[in-house]
Specification:
Elements lengths: L12 H35 L4 H4 L1 H24 L1 H21 L3 H29 L5 H29 L4 H4 L1 H15 L14 H22 L3 H22 L9 H4 L2 H31 L4 H8 L1 H17 L4 H20 L7 H28 L6 H29 L8 H29 L1
Organism: Acetobacter thailandicus
Keywords: Cell membrane, Membrane, Transmembrane, Transmembrane helix, Transport
InterPro entries: MFS (IPR011701), MFS_dom (IPR020846), MFS_trans_sf (IPR036259)
């Protein structure tokens, strides 16, 4: 027997708002915890009496596990039901946070962070699907504006929150603060989330596809980490295995009735172009995010604290621009808005590359603001297109691919920064201006891909 899914319009307002809040809180928790441990790494290394190299796996383990679980989480959400699978992810993340706080050795903390990364993947992969399922079509632009706001604010608040907690408490409290939020969110979600339609016969989970997926995404992240550490031979091996796993994954998925990799969605030109634009946008963003601190500290001689303040306008302006672009998305083509946003992002990054030798706040802050406004204008319309290009019953797969595109963009951007820093280290700025010029070019490429969606949409009509 199948259970009929209630339509979004049939849900009471209180129920939609409660489930929406739970989905957004999951995004915030996953976003903050992706970066919050970075601030505490020196403290954790001292407290656990370990070296800097091993302790970095507190971050790497989380990121790699999150990348590996994105597509399996999306597939499980569609076949087992969003309600049960998202609640499982929230519960796993909450329990893993407690385990992190109670860890007395580095191996225990690493295992706990791996579990926490898996939980965060479920939340990141399924939040967009939940938002689409419970939101009536006329309100989708507002809903995805809220999603963009939460992603931007979690990026802006994460480092500040970590610093504030560490100023008054020990590092385990970075993870203990998740407990009350997680417990309340899981309880509210299970109470309010509707029971969506389930398959009469649940498809078998594709373990072979999951293995190839782990190789494709996990080895890709590992290759970037090895490249950043200067281990070029290891990076080349991991990159080769990543490419081989990706080819094997695509070949294997073509034969599966319920594939992890949503090839049916990727055959839709509007969806595929939106994913490609997303990869470009996040690659440009992370290239600027990674290279700018080196620019400010090593070349312009700002302090680390001042550098953090100089970077802050970017995510804050993303949060300010997202509601505006979300409002405009209900009246103007998403392809146009996203393209304008990516052109603005490119202009902002290019202006940062052209900063004078001794820039003051008046030289830096407006440039950072342009980047934030541009990215904010791109993000909401593009995410809305990704989530609505395919049928509603494929929302889980679309949401998972949106998270995968973000991960791919960040990995590609990080790898490019490592390569440029290595080959351009003799330049006066250590390669940071080159990174920014390349990031500008990638943003313009994303704008070109984005505007191409307009002709695709016209052709489909």
């Amino acid at each position: 027997m199948t259970r009929t899914s209630p339509s979004a319009a049939d849900l009471p307002v209180w129920q939609r708002r409660t489930v929406m809040t739970c989905a957004l809180l999951g995004l915030v928790l996953a976003g903050i915890d992706a970066a919050i441990a970075n601030i505490a790494l020196p403290t954790i290394a001292t407290d656990l009496n370990t070296g800097v190299g091993p302790v970095t796996w507190i971050v790497n383990g989380y990121q790699i596990t999150a990348a590996i679980f994105l597509l399996p989480a999306a597939a499980l959400g569609e076949t087992r039901g969003l309600r049960a699978v998202y609640a499982f992810g929230l519960g796993l993340f909450t329990l893993a946070s407690l385990a992190c706080a109670l860890s007395s050795t580095l191996p225990l903390l690493l295992l706990s962070r791996v579990a926490q990364g898996a939980g965060s993947a479920f939340m990141a992969a399924l939040s967009g699907a939940i938002v689409r399922k419970i939101t009536p079509p006329p309100l989708l632009h507002r809903a995805f504006t809220a999603v963009a706001l939460c992603v931007a604010l979690s990026a802006a608040v994460g480092p500040t929150l970590a610093s504030a907690i560490l100023s008054v408490a020990s590092w385990p409290w970075l993870f203990l603060v998740n407990l009350p939020i997680g417990i309340v969110t899981v309880s509210l979600y299970l109470y309010a989330a509707p029971h969506h339609q389930k398959h009469a016969q649940t498809p078998r989970f594709d373990w072979t596809g999951a293995l190839f997926n782990a190789g494709a995404l996990g080895l890709g992240v590992l290759a970037v980490d090895a490249l950043s550490a200067g281990a070029h031979k290891l990076a080349e091996l991991e990159a080769a295995l990543c490419i081989a796993s990706t080819i094997a994954l695509i070949y294997h998925q073509r034969k599966q009735p319920h594939p992890l990799l949503p090839l049916d969605l990727l055959r839709i030109p509007l969806f595929a172009l939106s994913i490609a634009a997303s990869v470009c946008a996040y690659a440009a963003q992370i290239m600027a995010y990674v290279s700018l601190p080196f620019f400010f500290e090593n070349f312009f001689h700002y302090s680390p604290v001042m550098t953090g303040l100089l970077v802050t306008p970017w995510p804050l302006l993303v949060a300010c621009a997202a509601p505006v672009s979300g409002h405009l998305a209900s009246r103007h083509p998403a392809s146009l808005l996203s393209s304008v946003g990516l052109v603005l992002l490119a202009c902002g990054i290019g202006s940062l590359a052209m900063m004078p030798a001794n820039p003051g706040l008046a030289d830096i802050l407006p440039r950072m603001a342009i980047c934030g406004i541009g990215f904010g204008f791109y993000q909401t319309p593009n995410n809305l297109t990704v989530m609505t290009a395919g049928p509603v019953h494929r929302s889980g797969a679309a949401s998972g691919m949106m998270a995968v595109a973000r991960t791919m963009g960040w990995s590609l951007g990080s790898a490019l920064v490592a390569l440029i820093f290595d080959f351009d280290k003799a330049s006066p700025d250590g390669g940071t201006r080159t990174c920014l010029w390349v990031a500008m070019g990638i943003a313009l490429l994303g704008a070109t891909v984005s505007v191409a969606r307009r002709s695709v949409r016209k052709a489909s009509h």
